[in-house]
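Input.
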Amino acid sequence: MSAPPLAAGNWTALCSTHDVAPGFAVKVERDGAELAVFNVDGEFFVTDDRCTHGPGSLSEGCILGDIVECDFHNGAFNIRTGAVEAPPCMVPIRTYPVRVQEGRVFIPLLPVK
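Output.
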């Protein structure tokens, strides 16, 4: 069953699915937000790129399955849920609903900062 068409103006494209190899992430800036787009075995997830513990970029972290380890203090998060998996992080990261359509990764429109 295919996904219903994206309502015009309600979703924003972040990147092509070809931009993110399996087991990797890319950083995307959109509407003043820094986001990380992850490819976990062909399934796409989007989180805030900034670690909640410090200035680390999660898109530059080490990805093992559905866990990303921050490159700053080695705290870890679940890419699917945003849950903290390892200290020193204590605050989960924000995750976003994702739709993949016609080879592009979409999330709902973000409030303009």
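The chain has a mean pLDDT of 90.
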